[in-house]
Amino acid sequence: MPAHDRRPRIAYCAFPLDRASALRRDAAALAEAARADSTRVVPVWRNRNLITADDAPAMVALTGETARRALAAGRERIFLGADSRGAWFAADVSDIAEADLAPLLDGTPAGAAFRELRSAGALLAGDEAAVLACARGLAHWHTASRFCGTCGAPTESRDGGHARRCIRPDCGRDHFPRTDPAVIMLLTRPAPRRKPGDARCLLARQHHWPEGMYSALAGFVEPGEGLEAAVAREAMEETGLRLAAVSYRASQPWPFPASLMLGFRAEAAGDEIRRDEKELADARWFTRAELKALPEGDLRLSRPDSIARFLIEEWLAEKD
Ligand SMILES: [Zn+2]
């Protein structure tokens, strides 16, 4: 089956492994799994994943001696989960100098190299992209959490790489991997009763985006804020629009470095846009007919595997 046929509509959602969280605290079982020939190891080097080079890129999972080498050289051994053939680990091998990476590439396909997942992700099979995203996210969290935020002492990895604990006995605080929620919302206006075909959605562009690129509004959830409130606040701040209704649609893990995108449809109570000129270079209403008629190049939407695109395509497929 060609790789693209296995891609879900939203990237990074199709994590294929049993996370087997009960095993995380079984240090003896994890040590045994780490030695097994059937074990697969996904190395992460300086936030990059090991990926083949051809035009249908694929994840490279190490096995056997190469896998054990990666685990031994790894800053962290992170238990990702298991499938019917055995355990999967991530190993953060960032301490290896670039010139010394060759032994880790023993037996891997020609052209395999450490690449940025964000660029290759759209071409990977969905299950592989999800495994690589999980490995990248956890490796990044370990690197950013080496010291206790409460007392400043070093922390050490626990629970198969799914927690860290401060080593100072009178502190001992546990730290857990973080996921920062962000909301992304497609603002819509229904067609007036006498003007069928005039339903619209709002797309905007940021100043630094490539020419012609438009997408849905998005922003981070603030401490003490509910998701619906975050959607309403972002809509008001960026476009001056009040909302009449908000509904949750779908989510996308976004490990660049640690977000979860929560996607919403939001019906605006009016249509007069007061754009935040610092945040947005443009914000416009589009009818379905306008979006469908725009030639490729005049209007560039987010990547086909993004949640923004999912929200737009879902709305486009509906009738006014
Ligand atoms: Zn501490």
**Total beta-strand segments:** 14
Order of helices and strands: HEEHEEEHHEEEEEEHEEEHH
Sheet with the most strands?
6 strands, mixed
The low-confidence parts are: 1-7
Instruction: Kindly name the structural category.
Output: alpha+beta
Distance between the termini: 37 Å
Rg over CA atoms, rounded to whole Å, is 23 Å
Account of the 3D structure:
The chain has 320 residues and is an alpha+beta fold. The chain is 22% helix and 28% strand. The longest helix is centred in the middle third of the chain and has 19 residues. The strands form three sheets. Strands 9, 10, 11, 12, 13 and 14 form a six-stranded mixed beta sheet that branches.
List the keywords.
single chain, alpha+beta, 6-stranded mixed beta sheet, 5-stranded mixed beta sheet, binds zinc ion
Brief summary of the model shown:
With about 325 residues, this protein is of the alpha+beta class. About 20% of the residues lie in helices and about 30% in strands.
List the helices and strands and how they pair.
Elements: H1 27-35, E1 40-45, E2 48-51, H2 64-73, E3 77-83, E4 86-92, E5 113-115, H3 117-120, H4 126-144, E6 155-158, E7 163-166, E8 174-175, E9 180-189, E10 200-206, E11 217-220, H5 227-239, E12 243-254, E13 259-268, E14 280-287, H6 288-293, H7 307-316
Parallel strand pairs: 1-4, 9-13
Antiparallel strand pairs: 1-2, 2-5, 3-4, 6-7, 7-8, 9-10, 9-11, 10-14, 12-13
Bound molecules: zinc ion.
